[in-house]
Amino acid sequence: MHSWKSFTANRLQREHGRVGAVWQQESFDRIVRDEAEWLEKIQYIMNNPLKRWPELKTYQWVKPVWE
In three state form, how does the secondary structure of 8-64 look? Predict the structure, then answer.
């Protein structure tokens, strides 16, 4: 996990001129129990770019849920 986080963080920062943490310090496994919980997790992930960079108007990997 450390290698993946290091690689992706460095690449994202280099390619997009960003500084600062990309990943949280810790991670944990969680079993998603039903569709409602799955949708809750997806919503959380989709909103992460806006929380980190509130000035974003577009996000090339997904259609933002804040539009």
Answer: HHHHHHHHHCCCCCCCCCCCCCCCCCCHHHHHHHHHHHHHHHHHHCCCCCCCCCCCC
- How does pLDDT run across 30-56, given as a tens digit for each residue? 889 999 999 998 888 888 888 888 887
- What is the pTM (predicted TM-score) of this model? 0.47
How far is C-alpha 36 from the geometric centre of its chain's CA atoms?
Answer: 20
* Short-list 26, 23, 28, CA closest to 52: 23
Cβ atoms of 31 and 45 closer than 8 Å: no
C-alpha atoms less than 13 angstroms from C-alpha of 30 in its C-beta half-sphere = 8
In the structure encoding, which two tokens stand for residue 46, read together?
Answer: 């989709």
Q: Is 1 helix (H, G, I), strand (E, B) or coil?
A: coil
